[in-house]
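Entry, Tuesday afternoon. Goal for today is a structural model of the target with adenosine-5'-diphosphate bound, before we commit to ordering more compound. Inputs were pasted exactly as handed over by J.K., no edits. I checked the ligand SMILES twice against the vendor sheet because last time a stereocentre got dropped in transcription.
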Amino acid sequence: MIALNHIYKYVNQGGTRVFLLRDISLNIAQGEFISIMGPSGSGKTTLLNVMGMLDEADEGEYLFLDQPVKALKEKQRSALYKQHIGFVFQAYHLIDELTVYENIETPLLYKDYKSSERSAMVCEMLDKFNMVAKKDLFPHQLSGGQQQLVGIARAIVSKPTLLLADEPTGNLNSQQGQEIMELFKKLNSEGLTIIQVTHSEKNAAYGSRIINLSDGRIEN
Amino acid sequence: MLKNYIITALRNLWRNKFFSFINIFGLSIGISCCMLIFLYAKDEVSFDRFHEKKDQIYRVVAEIRSPDGKVNKESSTGMAQGPRFDANIPEIEDAVRMELTDFHIKQGSEVIEQSALFVDDRFFSFFSFPLLYGDPKTALQDPHSVVLSEDLARRYFGKADAIGKTLQMKAGEDFEPFVVSAVVKNPPANSSIKTDMLVSMKFQEARQEGNLFWMNFYLNTFVTLKKGADLQKTEAAMNRVYNQEAAAQISDMAKNYGFNEKVSYHLQPLLNMHLDTDYPAENGVVSGSNPLYSYILMAITGVILLIACINFINLTVARSLKRAKEIGIRKVIGGQRKSLVLQFMGESMVLGLFAFMLAIALTFALLPLFNSLSEKALSFSYLLDGKLVLAYIGLFLLTSFLAGFYPALVLSAFKPVETLYGKFRFTGKNYLSKGLIVFQFSLTTFLIVATVIVYSQFNYLLGFDLGYDHGRVMRVKTPKMNASGYEVLKNELMANPSIQALTAQNGGQWRTIAHVNGDVEQQFDIRGVSDNYFSFFGIPVIMGRNFSPAFPSDSISSVVVNESFVKAAGWKNPIGETVDFFYEHRKCTVIGVIRDYHYSSLLENVSPQLFSMNPQLRYKQVYLKFREGSRPQAIEHARAVLRKLYPAQPYQYDFLDDLIAENYSSEARWKQIISFAAVLTIFISCIGLFGLASLSAEKRAKEIGIRKVLGASVSVIMRNITLDFLLLVLVAACMALPLAWMAGNAWLQNYPYRISLHPFIFAGAALAVVFFALLTVSYQAIKAARSNPVRNLRTD
Ligand SMILES: Nc1ncnc2c1ncn2[C@@H]1O[C@H](COP(=O)(O)OP(=O)(O)O)[C@@H](O)[C@H]1O
Ligand SMILES: [Mg+2]
């Protein structure tokens, strides 16, 4: 599904080139559950963003579903990730002005689903995540764990094939974290490919494979 | 999708009540000003369009060319032009004359003055003024019939149906009965012809000698052209007829009065009349208006709207930091840039809609004020006109677009990686935003300077030493009086202690010519006065002597002139010089010279002026000086005296100071308009700045917290926030001042007597702008500086 070959990413800072990613080569197959680990500042988020096409590698080749991403136009690229990828963030990133229901519904609005289809899909998510009673609440009325559940529901409501989660449990207590991990495991078993960044050995262990990142390189 | 946008928009507006309020309020002021100006403009262009024959009706106007090439445009004609052109030119279907006059009307024991129009009997088939009662064909057939407007009929008879009622009216020497033959609907506010009272031209014709005179200009002649008639051909035919039929009168005038001007006739379309500055509205055609006023009003309105839009843009962009996260999220979960642009445009539309609704309420509330400023009778119901509604929808879309488009572009371009991972910092130089603030405050400074200049010039004109004593002087109109009649009136008036002094003058003043230095033609203004005129007004006689009862010949053959006359005539030694009224075969001797005084408005230089006690110039008004504090007594006493001596005369009085101020009523109006504009722009600019300052303080809350913990004082922190903005405002002031100086100078060139532009005005205006900006910003700065540092540091 994902193939990274000798990916480099750098920024120029005051004349010197600072590498964020160095020589990353990685293959990820459909249905895998990957955990990326590494110290803070090691480039985990950068790598996730490159894979999610929010950011672009400076060197190397990236194939997503066998398509060379670099060759795609900006528009095609965003169409591609919007169709296939769901994002989950450490800070949840819900839209504050929208209710739980509306937050989950928003991606569907951008994808031109009919109103009846939308409500069916959103209700299925609410049901699956046990949030039916909270559907009319606003994000600030929920606990962190609940907000993250909404974040995940929003990420997967339009049925992506890949879920990218950047420290999804970073702001949660271990009890809440564990629930999210159980959920990921279940989603993975239903066929969703998941790549998550985590600091916790325990959470990393939910994955089928762990990738250790240090100073922009993959460690073996 | 739309629902989602609208919901977010509304919740966003609600969540940021403060900024929403600033935006909505500012925009609504701008929109409201636009609505008013649309109303105004619509009224201006709608003048006289209600006449059925509006495209066929023309006014006969004349160009009078002197031998030296000077052209005088005259919108009036004499009695002859209308009927003679009509009779001789096949293209002309009909002609109607209209002459303004005053009647005295008996109302119980009172006599009141009523202005009226003499019109030809086809008036009602020519113009479209529908009658409520009476027959349009016959209403003006009888010379002693009168047509009243609905309002006037109610005033005189208590009901609209006044047909057959009689009014005792006097145009010449005696009261005569006039029978109401018709009642006409009140003319619309946008009519150049006001039809309060109409009397048949036949009455007027009967009073004048039989022959039709071509050579004077005092009434309006309207003609209708046949459909498809050639305008140029018709005008050529008019001039042919004039040169043929008036030939005898022209040579007569040349012989007797040295008349040597060429007259040519033209046709002015009725629909151009209201806004034509060449051929002004006069002699019964009213409310002509200079289109320049519309343009200035439009420009001012445009400026106000622009400033409100700038607020919107600046605040939206500055607040984008808070929206950045939402934008990132929407992009990551599938939002295209296009849909985000749409969303933000939609938001500005929602906001625009609120502003629009508030603007309607504001317009409603401001309409009376605007009416008095613009001297119009605009009504709110005009707003419902189809075209105007379209214009307002256009205005709404335009403001929403103007205000929303740029922020939409900026916001939708945010990159999600940057906004979602906190790398995003909207600290770019932000030249556009700064540029807009500078632009905004330049306009504000400009308007402040303009206001100060207009105010100073106005006060300068009002406070100008006119060279004579016009305080506590009341003017009372009288019937024609000779010297002995005046003596009687004088004795009666002076009997009351409230009246201190009295002098008399003829009906008015006009321009005439006479020969000086042999046969050199000299133009001057002539006044007939009583002998104490100069001492009454405190006008010094600087050479020779005043009129005096000791010299009986004074009243026949002596004149007094002003300095300008002496200068114009080129006299070294004016006393004893001769002024030859050649067309009256009367020679007068100059016995005295008075110092120039400003007898007409300061918009003109003092012209040559001549005073005479010639008994032919019969007194028609007296000036009386009342004692300090006894103005009401003087009014009442004069009323009683005039009622006793001249019961058939309406009591009409004015105060000289009011008459003088009236000369500057246009300036007074513009003074008000421009100060309103200035206040509005300052206000809108400052609420915008207030919002920006609060955002800036908010953004820097953490920095301020740290500084405070480190021991910085409130004043240091304040200076930090304030300085950025002040710099921008100062730049703005520096840019606006030279422009304001040029514009002010150009405007002042219209005035022969004007203030000089003191640097103080500009420094003052710049200071005022800076002061207002400082006041606005420092409130936020103090609030930020006073805030609890611990709380600010926690929130991140
Ligand atoms: N646009 C950028 N400019 C400069 N430095 C950056 C940029 N993006 C990331 N970095 C730096 O690159 C390193 C890796 O960042 P990141 O991928 O966020 O690390 P992680 O997620 O593993 O904590 C960090 O040191 C970060 O400061
Ligand atoms: Mg990270």
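The CA atoms of residues 318 and 558 of chain B lie 80 Å apart.
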